[in-house]
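Example (one chain per record):
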Amino acid sequence: MSYAFPETLSTPSIKAAQEAKGSGEFWAKFTGHRDFAGLADAEAEFIAMRDSFYMATIAENGWPYVQHRGGPPGFLRVLDSRTLAFADFRCN
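Predicted structure:
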């Protein structure tokens, strides 16, 4: 998986803000690789309380496509440590 997002966080003004807020050292060390062991219980509990979320993809032309989904708490669920499911309500 590509982690190109740090490129968007590397302008001089953003780097200055990161330094001012204390996160500059973290981002300076970030190499673009993160280990992911899956969603844990804490993440599953947080997700279960949500009443909305956003899905995003990138089109082949490189532009983002973002969609909002909403519903009552519980409509978004963790099926296993790597799988989410949601009810897709009409007019969403």
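Caption: Residues 38-92 form one domain.
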